[in-house]
């Protein structure tokens, strides 16, 4: 009789079906695909952090033999896009019907797109495009952008405030009253680059059924398609998006790069158009991890129970939302750490600035929030004179624990066991007197020192598409 | 400039611009796109090929400098089948997105020619010039170790 507890998949090491092509170099990534008669694209990016684009003069570029077209704001049928909200012009410049589409808000905005017979020619022509700007006051700090006197980056977003999440749990006065120690600190993180090995690249063409097709690396095929057909004002069935092999993404390809302008050029010119970004372009012109500033105060009772925590969490969204409101929602949930704390008061903001947009990146807001939470746990342990493992063990989530927003954790929570095992394997020992750190032996070379730190991370998963009544 | 470069056993005569990089000669003129450009600055190792048997980062090497030389790329490594290193990367899950994989395989096959029995430490040390941004190093090291064992066994 068949043993129903065994399966043919689970517990087996299955050979990956995509591996043969990748180990032989046969698998094409977007930059590896060419079509006969293809043209090359180069993008002209904003040279201002915040300015109104008065005029884009492409005459010198167009005069160069071999330059086929220069597209500007005038050529984009519906000049707006964005994964979560359409707050970014495809190409910034005058003449549009959408308010604010003539304003550049960061150095990664597009002001023109050049298409030529060769890549070198496209680059040469791009340098000849003349743009007249009228500078607007910029703001580069998220807290400064929240002040009433700060310049407004989007006319429809007062206070540059993209999102504000609140958690109110328990009774803060009661919590602070129970606290034997209170620690307060400010935690700041900075931008981080995804640095996927495959720089942005793509190829667009009109397929055998007359549809504009974009071959590109991304993370949301259908969202890419929706943003392209919206901007080009085409019916959905006229636009195809194909992802070949993708050379890394890590959240950095959730928002689009070259997709819409490639589709626009192929649609207008009826010829294949290709682009490959250099590493420099990739670093300068795609979003980053959010810099987040966290002011936070935690209190613990003498026995180590964390009784109250409050936090103000400010994320720099940069010039456009990208996934900022979702990322900061996640930071909001994680900033009280992997601990059940009865009294919480948390405010989390995503704020527009004239910096580079920020968005998805491995961890999606959790790493920054947990950095603050774990820093606070170390400080609380020190203030109480308690071991750092012991303090965490006292507070860490168990089955049935309530998350910051009141959701009970289901069965199968094993953080306490994980913590025990990690600590035991890392210079901590369970003694009769409880957990004790046993400092490692130091190497003979005085230039080398060995130490151990301890932190717990946890994160939600299953970032499902939000639907009515369901919040990410 | 006229050059004569042997690539994967076949002689190619070409008239190229002096500033053309070897990686672009391979990718754009010979359509061998298995060799990748990741960083443009010889840091990531995605462009690694063999030049006269030695591993070389082809994104900072002029094609004219390869005149008279013999180049092997990922496409030519295994001949008609798979090289043991390619097999091992497959078997040991030594790849995730796969973009660094050709460079990893070219770098490690060149290394094993002179260091047939590397320790894990040796492999890690040698791979410092190749970046896997998916951070799949554990299985890459396992794949190289497995390939070394296979090759030592005359497999």
Give a verbal description of the structure.
The complex is a heterodimer of chains A (472) and B (155). By secondary structure, chain A is of the alpha+beta class. Chain A contains twelve helices and 17 strands. Chain A has a seven-stranded mixed sheet with strand order 3-5-1-12-9-10-11. Chain A has a five-stranded mixed sheet with strand order 7-15-14-13-8. In chain A, strand 13 and strand 14 (306-318) form a beta hairpin. In chain A, helix 10 crosses helix 11. Chain A is globular, with a radius of gyration of 26 Å. Chain B contains six helices and five strands. In chain B, strands 2-1-5-3-4 form a five-stranded mixed sheet. With 155 residues, chain B is of the alpha+beta class. Chain B is globular and about 45 Å long. Chain B has helices at 22-29, 74-77, 84-91, 101-114, 120-126, 137-152, and strands at 2-7, 10-15, 48-51, 54-57, 70-72. Chain A binds chain B through residues 13, 15-16, 18-29, 31-32, 34, 194-199, 245-250, 276, 278-280, and chain B through 27, 31-41, 44, 46, 73-75, 78, 82, 86-87, 89-91, 93, 95-102, 105, 131-134.
């Amino acid at each position: 009789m068949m043993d129903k507890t065994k399966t043919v998949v689970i517990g087996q090491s299955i050979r990956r079906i995509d591996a043969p092509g990748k180990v032989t170099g046969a698998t094409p990534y977007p930059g590896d695909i060419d079509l006969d008669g293809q043209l090359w694209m180069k993008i002209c990016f904003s040279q201002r952090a915040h300015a109104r684009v008065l005029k884009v003069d492409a005459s010198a570029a167009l005069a160069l033999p071999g330059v086929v077209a220069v597209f500007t704001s005038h050529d984009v049928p519906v000049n707006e896009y964005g994964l979560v909200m359409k707050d970014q012009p495809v190409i910034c410049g005058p003449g549009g019907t959408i308010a604010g589409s003539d304003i550049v808000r960061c150095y990664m905005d597009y002001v023109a797109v050049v298409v030529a017979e060769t890549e070198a020619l496209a680059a040469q022509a791009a340098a000849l495009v003349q743009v007249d700007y009228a500078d607007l006051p910029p703001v580069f700090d998220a807290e400064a952008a929240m002040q009433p006197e700060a310049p407004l980056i989007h006319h429809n977003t007062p206070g540059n405030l993209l999102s504000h999440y609140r958690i109110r749990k328990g009774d803060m006065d009661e919590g602070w009253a129970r606290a034997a120690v209170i620690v307060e600190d400010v935690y700041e993180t900075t931008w981080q680059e995804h640095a996927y090995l495959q720089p942005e690249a793509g190829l667009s063409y009109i397929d055998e059924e007359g549809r504009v097709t974009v071959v590109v690396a991304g993370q949301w095929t259908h969202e890419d398609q929706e943003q392209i057909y919206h901007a080009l004002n085409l019916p959905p069935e006229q636009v195809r998006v194909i992802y070949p092999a993708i050379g890394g993404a890590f959240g950095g390809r959730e928002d689009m790069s070259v997709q819409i302008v490639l589709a626009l050029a192929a649609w207008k010119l009826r010829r294949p158009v290709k682009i490959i970004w250099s590493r420099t372009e990739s670093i300068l012109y795609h979003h980053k991890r959010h810099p987040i500033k966290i002011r936070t105060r935690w209190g613990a009772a003498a026995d180590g129970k964390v009784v109250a925590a409050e936090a103000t969490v400010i994320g720099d969204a940069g010039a456009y939302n990208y996934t900022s409101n979702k990322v900061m929602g996640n930071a909001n949930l994680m900033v009280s750490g992997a601990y059940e704390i009865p009294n919480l008061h948390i405010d989390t903001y995503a704020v527009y600035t004239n910096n580079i947009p920020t968005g998805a990146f491995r961890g999606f807001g959790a790493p920054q929030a947990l950095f603050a939470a774990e820093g606070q746990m170390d400080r609380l342990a020190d203030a109480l004179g308690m071991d750092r493992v012991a303090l965490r063990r006292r507070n860490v989530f168990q089955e049935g624990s309530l998350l910051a927003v009141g959701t009970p954790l289901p069965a199968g929570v094993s953080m306490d066991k994980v913590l025990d095992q990690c600590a035991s394997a890392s210079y901590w020992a369970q003694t009769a007197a409880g957990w004790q750190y046993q400092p490692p032996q130091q190497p003979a070379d005085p230039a080398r020192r060995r130490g151990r730190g301890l932190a717990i991370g946890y994160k939600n998963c299953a970032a499902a598409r939000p639907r009515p009544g369901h919040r990410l | 400039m006229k050059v004569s470069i042997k690539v994967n056993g076949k002689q190619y005569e070409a008239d190229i611009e002096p500033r053309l990089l070897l990686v672009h000669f391979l990718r754009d003129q010979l359509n061998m796109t298995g060799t990748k450009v990741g960083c443009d600055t010889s840091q990531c190792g995605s462009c690694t090929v063999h030049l006269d048997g030695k591993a070389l980062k082809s994104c900072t090497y002029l094609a004219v400098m390869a005149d008279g030389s013999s180049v092997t790329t990922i496409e030519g490594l295994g001949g008609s089948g798979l090289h043991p290193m390619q097999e091992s990367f497959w078997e040991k899950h030594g790849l995730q997105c796969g973009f660094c994989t050709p460079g990893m395989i070219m770098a490690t096959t060149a290394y094993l020619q002179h260091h047939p029995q590397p320790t894990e430490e040796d492999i890690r040390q040698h791979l410092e010039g190749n970046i896997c941004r998916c951070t799949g190093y554990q299985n890459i090291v396992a794949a190289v170790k497995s390939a070394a064992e296979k090759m030592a066994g005359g497999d």
